[in-house]
Amino acid sequence: MEAARTIPGRENGGNCDIKNLSRGSKIYLPVFVDGANLSTGDMHFSQGDGEVTFCGAIEMSGFLDLKCEIIRGGMKEYLTPMGPTPLHVNPIFEIGPVEPRFSEWLVFEGISVDESGGQHYLDATVAYKRAVLNAIDYLSKFGYSKEQVYLLLSCCPCEGRISGIVDSPNAVATLAVPTAIFDQDIRPKSSKVPVGPRLVRKPDVLKCSYEGNLPTTENPGARI
């Protein structure tokens, strides 16, 4: 009755789960009450944009070293409420210099048409869901279960984008998956899908076994 839930992202910050907010980031949070406190938590070792399985990032324990500063009158100076009360504002972020760096991506597109063929007018959520489902279906052809791919897209540093929001009736979202995280080449080719990892049940637990002879893609970040 008197407090704001911290599960969702909200006006004063909340659980925003933005994967690029890492070491060196700056966060400008609105302050709505006198004597407000600051708390932080839910640190992730790795996460994909959207954390699509809800609790699908790689959670971790850790310590935060924070420097806090108050910009007096900052809300009035920089933030214009987009609604009927002063609460209708949102935080501003500066992304830090420490984030995953990849140069090669396979990008999956989704539009705002659901699995039953129903069209949702400029609905970016439906479009992003379709992009994720398209990625899951495609990557499952390379020997992974769809459950494995679903979890992977939630915890690997994939990049989600609203790529088109003006060409009605379809919103367009994209999901970019870094190719270097795989031990096989996942790009489409004129030949058949190569034999890569295959699922083995022992007896009812899925285990991914790789006994092929495919060229691997080196992750440049692993040399650091």
From TrEMBL:
The lineage of its organism: Eukaryota, Viridiplantae, Streptophyta, Embryophyta, Tracheophyta. It holds the Pfam family FmdA_AmdA. It comes from Citrus sinensis. Signal peptide: none annotated. InterPro entries: FmdA_AmdA (IPR004304). This is Formamidase. GO terms for molecular function: hydrolase activity, acting on carbon-nitrogen (but not peptide) bonds, in linear amides.
